[in-house]
Structure formats: structure tokens, C-alpha cells
Amino acid sequence: MLRLFLALTIFTFFSCRTNPEATIVKEVKVTKAAVASANAIASEIGVEIMKKGGNAIDAAIAVHFALAVVYPQAGNIGGGGFMVYRQKSDNSYYALDYREMAPEAATEDMYLDSLGNVIPKKSTHGFAAAGIPGSVDGMWQAYQRFSKLQNWEMLLEPAIKLAREGFIMTETQIKELSEKQEEIKTYSPTENPFTQNLVQGEPFVQEDLAKTLEAIRDKNRYGFYTGWVADAIVSSMEQNGGNITYLDLLRYKSKWRIPSVIYYRGFKAVTMPLPSSGGILLPQMMEMANKFKLRDMGLHSPDAIHLVTEVERRAYADRAMHMGDTDFVRVPIYNLMHSGYLDERVSTIKRTKATPSNAIRGGIFQDSPQTTHFSVVDEEGNAVSITTTLNARYGSKVVVPNAGFLLNNEMDDFSVKPGVPNLYGLVGGDANKIQPYKRMLSSMTPTIVERDEHPFLIVGSPGGSTIPTTVFQVISNMVDYGMDLKSAVNAPRFHHQWLPDILYMEEGGFDQATITELEERGHEIKFREKIGQVNAIHISVDGTITAVGDRRKDNSAAGY
Ligand code: DON
Predict the structure, then answer these.
(1) Mean model confidence pLDDT for the chain
(2) What are the backbone dihedrals phi and psi of residue 68, each rounded to the nearest 5 degrees, phi first?
(3) Ligand 1 center–CA 371 separation, angstroms
(4) How many angstroms is it from 424 CA to the middle of ligand 1?
(5) What pLDDT does 481 receive?
(6) pLDDT score of 368
(7) Separation of 177 CA from ligand 1 center, angstroms?
(8) Is the CB–ligand 1 distance for residue 391 below 6 Å?
(9) Which of 424, 417, 420 is nearest to 442 (CA)?
(10) H or E element: which one contains 97?
(11) Which is catalytic among the residues 371, 372, 387, 447?
């Protein structure tokens, strides 16, 4: 009897409450710990883990695996990401790169035909579009180094339960999956839950995924990179023109990197370095913006938008020219961040006239929620900022047979051909060309901002090329304009990336007089429904923790 009681107590203590349908909460104000993520079920799981004694890393791992189930358009085990971690005890920062790598068989011209033209969709759809997934190794490395719970199984259990028993999709999720079902049918060799008839209110069950997650639970990273899951990946690659081999899976390794740090008007921002271009773009934009009195110009005034646009344009021109994986190419990081160089760049900005980008070729610019960002803070003050992705929505549209997870199409983030824009209209050159085991350049910018050695803001966003500008604008909204977190996140955004030479603005967010004035200064404006989806946490001086899920889409905050 006593043994049964003990067993039950242990089970209840270690098992997590998993709610298959959680209510979306846009803002919480709490005192201990919080999570903001793209999905309410996942945010609640993170909070539960911390209530059971886990730290921010434990919570982040559980949220990551949960998102692979309840937010399959971007949450993943078949993709990769970046994590910035702040350890409270010594105020130290860590950056984990679990970005996908090109398989050994990858070549510079693998997506070109014999005439040197880009083969449509080859880098974005199907098995050949996938890089070697990094997420499972990333979570395992983070766990080994920083987990407080030291109970890996417990971090996987909520995800397994949700995959096996199902969860209720939101209306937005049903709509977004329906739009991609045909493509998933075309590129996935076997029947899978993503191609079934979707009924609102019915649990969405992923039995194969549950088994894969169990293999990861039982054998950690080796349950994914070796064993039957590896067999499933490699055999389907061989049968469907993919490139990932057993050796590629064995060799995958995430990397701890030195975080990128920048000071902005008395605040210190810590973010992901290369292969995230955000690690240079954000510092460049901050350093250039530092030279202007944005606050005096007024939020979203034509002057402020004009100057920030010019700053963004200049930073992104450097991205295309210089940035790539520093394990393979020498990137002049020091020069790019040098204040003398940035002074010079700023000196070419005209106050009332747009500088035309040296337009080579315009890009097709798309946005749909594909990547996902989440922020976590725990009772001790440790903080995690993670952005993870499959690249496009549902990645390569390939569900691995028998293993039930989607593969990324991250290879498209390489420069497939110099000057040819990728999914996000970004162009690149030699620094970001394809090479075996190289990591493709990213824009993901998970960031932690501190003031006087206290965490102030944990922030990040999806949105492809728009991520660094989104992160910059949220920070600027708070630092320059004194906004509270909710207003800073929900405020309309704008974006310029050098090429195409277009200023993108969120529809309905800016008044006509401002738009007209910007057009008169020479900016070509296009409107977009949404730019980014920010999930952020602010810690105020009195210790109040505010977690906010962006008003855009289903993002949801939780805390206690
Ligand atoms: O790493 C990158 O920059 C891209 N693969 C991110 C894609 C993305 O944010 C899509 N989300 N909207």
C-alpha cells in the first residue's frame, strides 16, 4: 500500500499537467516565472515544469518539444535554432547554435540545372531541401550543461502525451494547415496526420511522432541520430532524392558560441552571433541609430521611420556581401561593427531623401508564420531566449515516414546562386555559398537585454529577413520611446532589407500623411499584413515580470 502511495506520489510529482486545449492569454503580470510562446498549451507546459522545480532551461526544453507537437508549422525536431541563455548566479551569457548543417554530399551548384539556372522549388520543397536537423542535439546539449531538474524524461512526457492523445488546433492553425495540405501530400511519401481531413474541435493525434519522441526520451540525442529514427530518415532520403546519410546524422553537433554584445543608450543587448546575421545586424542598427535622437523625432514620425529605414538598408547590404558561417569563411566582424565604419555609413544618410539601394534584382517577399520564438524566465532570474525553425511553414513539406515529423527546408537559406533571392528576397554571395557541413546564414535573433546587470527584456521573433528589424524596433520602442512591453510588441512595424529596395509597412498601422511624406522622400512603400510575431518578457525594477504574446496570431503568455 505504502509502495503504491509512493509510486503515485512520484508519478504525480513528475508528470506534468498537459492541457490539450489552452486559452490564449496575451499578457500576464506575475512575480516568479513566465513563458511567452506561439502556443498556449506550450506556454503552460513551460510554467508547469518551473512550478515543479525546473529552471528556465528545463522549461525551454519542454516547451521546445511541446511546440514540435502543438505548433508543427515551425516548432520542430526536424529543424534547428538558436538559444541565448542568461545564468543568474554569475550573470553570464551563453549562445547555443543548433542550426542545421549542409549534408556532406551538398555542393555549391546542387540546386542549379546544367545551364546554371536555379531549379524551381528544389531548395525549398522535398527531401533535398533539408539540412541535417539540429534541434534534438541542441536540447540535449542545453540539458546536459544547465538542467536543474536532471530529469530528461519529464521534459519529454508532456509532448509525448499531446502527440499520442492529441490536442485541439486553433482556428488559425486549421486554416494554415489546410493551405499547405496539398503540398504536404505531394512531398511526403506516406500518409500522415497532416494530410487528413481536419475537423475543428477534434483532437489532432500524431502517433508516429509520439514514438519518435519516446525514442528521444529513452535514448536522448541517440534516439534521433541513431537507431530506428535514423533508419527512417536515411532510407526515405535514399528513396526520394535526399542527401542526408547516417554519417551526416552521426556527425551533427551543436556548438556553444560567444554571444554578440552591444550597448544601446545605457542598455546591454546580448544576442546570437554568426551564423545568425542578427548578431551583426542588430549591433549595426543599434550603433547607427544611437547617433540619432529618435525620441525627439517622435514615434513613427516620417523622420524616425526614414532614418531607421536608411539604417536598416545599410546593415542588410552588408549581410548580403559579407556574412556566412564563420567556421568556413572569414567574416570581417570587427570592421562591420567598428564605430568608425558605422559613422561613415551614417554620414551617407540624407535627412529627407531615400538612398536608392543598388538594385540588382528584386526579391519575392513572403511572410507566413514559419519560425517561432519563445522566451522564458524562472524564479531564480535565469532567462532563455530561443528562436527555432523549419524555415518555411511546415518546412520542406516532407513528413518522415514512420517517424511522423517534418523536415526543414533550411538549405534555401544558403545563397543558392549569387544574386538570386531566397524565400525572403535576400541575396547573398560567396560567404554564404553551399559547402558540406557548413551552416546556412540565418536572421534569427534571440536576444536578452539587460540594464545595470539585471535582465530587462527577453525578446525575439519569426519573420525571416524581418527578424532583426523587428527585434530592433521592439527594443527601440521601449528604450527610446518608454513604451510598456505590450504596446512595444503590438505597435505597427516597418522593414527595409536593402534589396529589394522597398520599405515594407504593416497595413493600417501608419497614417496617410506619414506614408505620403515617406513616398515624397523617395521610398517605395509596400504594405504587408504582418511583420513578425514577438513573444517577450519584461522584468521591471520592482521585480514584476510581464510576459506578452504578440497580438498577431495565437501567441500566448503564462506565468505565476
Ligand atoms: O534562419 C532564418 O533566417 C530563416 N530560416 C527563418 C525563417 C523564418 O523566420 C520564417 N518565419 N516567418
Answers:
(1) 94
(2) -60, -25
(3) 5
(4) 8
(5) 98
(6) 53
(7) 18
(8) yes
(9) 424
(10) strand 92-98
(11) 371
